[in-house]
Each structure stands twice: as C-alpha cells, then as structure tokens.
Amino acid sequence: MQKIKIKNMNKEKELKWGTIIPLIGGSAIGCNKATGNLPAFHLSYEAFAANESHIEDYWPDVPMYRLDHEDLDIPNQTFEQVDFVNSVCPCAGLSQLNSASGSASSRGSDAVQNQWMYNSSEYVLENVKPKVLWGENAPGLFTKMGEGVVNRLKAIGEKYGYSFSLIKTNTELHGIPQRRIRTFYFFWNTPTVPMLDWKFREKKHLIDYLKEIPEDATLQDMFMVAGKVTDHYKPYEFVLEKEGLNHADFAKKFGKGTIAQYLEKYDLLDECIHWLDKKYHKQGFSNKKSTKSFGDMLEHQKYKTSQGLGYWDASPHFFNESFSALIGRNMFNGVHPTENRYLNIREMLHLMGLPLDFGIKDARQVNHIAQNVPATTAMDMAVEVKKFCEGKAKMTNFTFMKQDNTNQKILVTEELGAEPKKKYKVNSTF
C-alpha cells in the first residue's frame, strides 16, 4: 500500500486567470466567486459564439479572442503570469446521452467532439503556460470508456511538463439540489499533483431552493412550455381523473418520476389510450393537431417496452427534494414541485447556480443553460486551484491521481519515478 507524502508551500498572490471555451459562463462565474477577480481574457472559437454571447453580455469588459479568426490579435501582455485557465469543452464525446453510432460522432474515446479538449489543452499549455489548466467533462471521462481520452490528455501534459489528475463529483455535494455527476480534469505545472480537499455542502430542498428567487427577478414569465401541465399533456389529466386528485396532492403522493412511468407501472396504458381516443381523438401536444397524437405516443411506448427497448419519455417529470441533471428533456418536461406548471427559465438558471441578474435573450437558447457547470461546483474546484497557485496545496508524490468526491476515495495513482502506467490502490484518509 502506497502512502501519499504531503508537503505544504506558502505564498500569497493576487490571481490572474482566463478561460478557453467558457460557453454560457457558469464555470467562469464560479472562478470569479473563488478569486474575487474577473478573468483577464476569454479564448474560444467561432463554433461557440452563440453559447458565449451570454457571458460576453454579462461581463462586457472582458476581451474575447476567437482563435480561428484570421484577424486575431492578442496583446503581448495578455498571457503574462497567468495563474490558471478554465475550460468547459463540449462533453458529447463521452456523454451517455450521445446515441450516435457508426460515425466519428459516436460516443467513446475516438469521438470527434473530444478534439476540442485536445486542441484547447495544446493551445493553452504551449502559449499561455499557466500554473493550472482545468476543465469539466462528462462522467465517462472518469470511467473505462474515457481511458483513451485520459491517456491522450496525460501525454499532452507530459509534453509541456504538467502532471494530471481527475476528480468526480455531484452537484448535490456543492449546495444545489441537482443530481449532476461530472468529471473535472487538471493539468498542474509541477511534477506531482496536489491532493484536493473533499467537498460537501448542505443542499437545500428543491422547494426551498426555488423560493430563493425574488418576485422581481427577471425571466420568470419565460417558459419552454407555458401554461398548466394538464393542458399541455392530456394523459396527465387522465391520471388525475383516475386518482381523484388535484395536481398538488398527486405530486405529493407520486414523489418522483414521469407520467409515462406511472401509466406503465400501474398497467394503465390501454385504459389511458381508450380515454384519449374518446375525449381528444388525435389531439397532440399543446392542444394542436400533430402527426403523433398522445395515444400514438403511448402505443409507441407500449411497443418499445414490449421489445425490451427504451423510449424517449417527453411526459411530465416530477421531482421531490432534488432535480435530476438539468439536460435536454428535463428542460421541457420538468414540473414545478408545488405548482401546476413547468419550470420557468429563471428557475433553470438558478438550478445552475447562475446569478439572479444573469439572463438569456430567447427561450430557444435554453439548451445553453444545460451546457454548463453549476457555479457553486466550479467555485469549489476553483478554490482548490487557488490554493495550488498560492502555494498552499497539499502536494503528493504522484504524477497522476483519480479522486472520487462522491464517496471520498482515491481510486488510481501513478507514483513519480515508477514504471509507466504502474497503478496503486491507496488509502483515502489523510
């Protein structure tokens, strides 16, 4: 059993930092909270201009440099003495939500989307040369599926003299009631990596957390789907009628899950299809005629489940004390915990820890919110980076380490001077 050797360094310094591919800006805002400083620069590419328009509007004085613009002109002093750079590269290459197959976009280490991590890391380590480059990606980066990506990132780090580490965590451990598991990766400009402190913040109940939004906050009248849940999704009207309950009482009784799951669990699909055909015939979403009626969708669900296959569940999704990961479908079908409606845009922004004065211009941009890092999670990671930059980190004798904050364990290490890729299981108590 290998034992981690700890050493401490002490040095105070005002931090200079920047971003590369910040996207909507949740991670950058977390860095701002940890350091008290605005970034000195944003670096990105034209492909992400729409996503990054929000953080550019929020911090209009921070310069944005598009690295693929022909007229790129970065002042010489921009990269002088940069302490860290933060990144939020696209995670589709390792995301469980990526269902592409048989192409370069397929999920896995060879997915073309991973190229953003490789290219941005190369650029920063070669040109900016910060003390730390760190970023966020999907949970898959921490698993066997991500080993190829990790090995390539490690090799990039070694090329420029950086050690490399990973930590997996869940947003629920950082004070926000959202079950969002993600992996953070770090390039450290030292031969060995620091031991990052375990993080645990008390989270509030979803109801109490949403109550933090003041009445005068903007975007509370902006919805992906406006109106009552029962008006939007007629099978839910059937469920309430069947149960003899109103929305509030049903939500309390049901707890969490979707209406589609409820109908399947209690063998009500056929009865609901018959009820829909009799009362609404071929009516689809939002009281409009559709190529697929509600009954058609439930028939599709029946067929898929009979074949042992999954299906796209667009039915209302109920939550109790925590929201699930704020992603695609939940942004359309996430039901408010006490009201007969879906979440509004301000509530989604709040679930990502974004400031109450942070906004988006159009509900059609709502997916930008999900392509993001909750600000409190990023802040906790930035605090660890700040400690390293100030010489206060607990250093190890490992060139590579994987920490799991969800169970406070260290899973894999590689010791300085050991044979390449030699791995050790180590104790998680220090």
CATH topology of the largest domain: Rossmann fold
Distance between the termini: 14 Å
Strand arrangement across the biggest beta sheet: 3-2-1-4-5-8-6-14-15
CATH homology superfamily name of the largest domain = Vaccinia Virus protein VP39
CATH architecture level-2 label of the largest domain: 3-Layer(aba) Sandwich
The CATH class assignment of the largest domain is Alpha Beta
Beta content: 5-15%
Query: How many helices?
Result: 15
How many domains, as an integer? 2
Explained architecture:
- The chain is of the alpha/beta class and 430 residues long.
- It folds into two domains: 17-204 and 373-415, Rossmann fold, CATH 3.40.50.150; 223-343, no CATH class.
- The protein is 31% helix and 14% strand.
- It has 15 helices and 15 strands.
- The strands form four sheets. The protein has a nine-stranded mixed beta sheet with strand order 3-2-1-4-5-8-6-14-15, sandwiched between helices.
- The longest helix has 15 residues, at 375-389.
Output the keywords:
alpha/beta; 15 strands; 15 helices; Rossmann fold; disordered N terminus; 31% helix; nine-stranded mixed β-sheet; disordered C terminus
List the helices and strands and how they pair.
Layout: E1 17-20, H1 26-35, E2 42-44, H2 49-58, E3 64-66, E4 84-87, H3 115-128, E5 132-137, H4 147-159, E6 163-170, E7 178-179, E8 181-188, E9 194-195, H5 206-210, H6 229-232, H7 234-243, H8 247-254, E10 257-258, H9 259-265, H10 269-279, H11 294-306, E11 317-318, E12 323-324, H12 330-333, H13 345-351, H14 367-370, H15 375-389, E13 394-395, E14 398-404, E15 409-415
Parallel strand pairs: 1-2, 1-4, 2-3, 4-5, 6-14, 7-12
Antiparallel strand pairs: 5-8, 6-8, 9-13, 10-11, 14-15
